[in-house]
Amino acid sequence: MSPRKRRIDDPLWKSILEQTFSHFLRFIFPDADAVFDLSRPFDYLDKEFEQLFPPESNGKGVRYVDKLVKVYLNDGSEQFVLCHVEIQSSKGNGDLAERMFHYFYRIWDRYKVPITAIAILADENEGYRPAVYRQKFMGTSLRYDFNSYKIMDQEESVLRANENPFSVIVLTALLAIKNKKISDEGLKAIKHDLYDEMLNRDMDKDTRQGLYDFLTYYVSFDNEEVLGIFEKEIKTKIGRSDTMGTQEYLLDKAEKKGIQKGIEKGKREEAIAIALEFKKMGIAIADIAKGTGLSIEEIEKL
C-alpha cells in the first residue's frame, strides 16, 4: 500500500493557527499568560507579510506556510510572532535557517518591533531539525536562534495528557506521520480517537469547529464515501445533525479572506490553487465559483 496523500494541508494550517492562536502561544510558551495580554485581539498581518515576501514557489519537495501576528504584552507594548510551518521538506533544500533569518531582518528593518519566531516542523525527515543560523568571516560572526518544534519527536502519551486544545492539532499531525500506510477503516478509527480527544478539552464553539475540520481533513480517505460515513457517525455520537463540514468552512474562509479581491490584484494563481483543492474534495463547482470568484467554465477546465 502506497503512503496516503494529504490534501489541503496549507489552508488547514493557516486556518487552524488563527482559530487557536491563544492556545498555540500557551502550548509553545508555558509562561504565555504572564507575558502576553491574551485578552486583546490578535492582528494577523498576512497582507504586510506578503508585501515583504511576495508569494513564490516553495521549491521542489518543500512546502510551508507562514503567519505573522501582532500581539500585545501585559506591559502594553507590541510584539510580532512569526510562525512558520514546514509541512514537507527535502534535506539540503529550502534552507530553513537562512529563510528564518531573512524573515527576521526584513521584518525588523521594516517595523522595528521585537520578534519571536517559531518553526513547526511537520515533515518526516529524521535528521531535519534546524534551529540556528550562523555566519562567520574574518573575525565577524552572527548567530540567529529561533524556536523549533519537531512534531515527530513528540510523545503521544504526553500530547494526550495535555489539556491544551492545540495538543490535538499536534497529535493529529503526529499520527499522520506514524500511520502513513493504513486502511480507511483504520484511519476512521484514528479520527474518532482524535475527536474524542477534542471532546475531552474545554474550548469555545469556533475552536471546536476548527479542530473538527482539521482532524477530519488533514489526511484524506482513499474512498471518499468513508468520509460521509465518518461524519454521520460523529453526528450520531454527539446527537446532532448540523455538524458543519469543511466544505462550508473553507468556502466561507475563502470569501472572508477576499480571494475575489485577490484576483483583481494579480493573485489569480492562489485562487486557482484553492479551487483545484476544493475540486479534488468533490465540492460542487458552483460553490467553488462562489468561494473563489472564478468562473464555472474556468473551474471545469482545472
From TrEMBL:
Protein's organism: Sphingobacterium paramultivorum
Domain of life: Bacteria
Protein name: Transposase (putative) YhgA-like domain-containing protein
